[in-house]
Amino acid sequence: MEHIVTVQDAVTAFADFMEPTNAELDAIEQEMPVILADVDLLDAHITTLDRTPTELDAQRIRRARRRALAARVALLKRTAAASLPGGAA
Predict the structure, then answer these.
(1) Phi, psi of 38 (to 5 degrees)
(2) Cβ distance 87 to 81 under 8 Å?
(3) Residue-wise over 23-50: b if at least 16 C-beta within 10 A, else e?
(4) Which of 14, 39, 43, 79 is such that its CA lies 20 to 30 A from the CA of 63?
(5) What residues in the chain have per-residue pLDDT under 50?
């Protein structure tokens, strides 16, 4: 008779390695404004898939696109400032 415990040990042997590291979680947290801005942009596009976009829809898409671009620029500036020696911008 085989023990189920050996199968369970084989399945969960690497469970600790499957979790994100603190550095990965920090990177995700830094990128969260970009992620949320992209979600808003996708949401604006999705609302116009089943209908003809109105002027209000076009404005919403333009606004969401500008916010997504601004979030990316802000992230680039933060990462560039962090990579410079001495933290100078």
Answers:
(1) -65, -40
(2) yes
(3) eeeeeeeeeebbeebbebbeebeeeeee
(4) 79
(5) none
Which 8-state DSSP code applies to residue 49?
A: T
Two structure tokens written together for 64: 């969401």
Using one digit for the tens of pLDDT, what is the confidence trace for 52-76? Answer: 999 999 999 999 999 999 999 999 9
One-letter amino acid for residue 38 of the chain:
D
Nearest to 60 by CA among 79, 70, 47: 47
pTM here is: 0.69
Check residue 18 and give its pLDDT.
Answer: 78
Structure tokens at 65: 């696109």
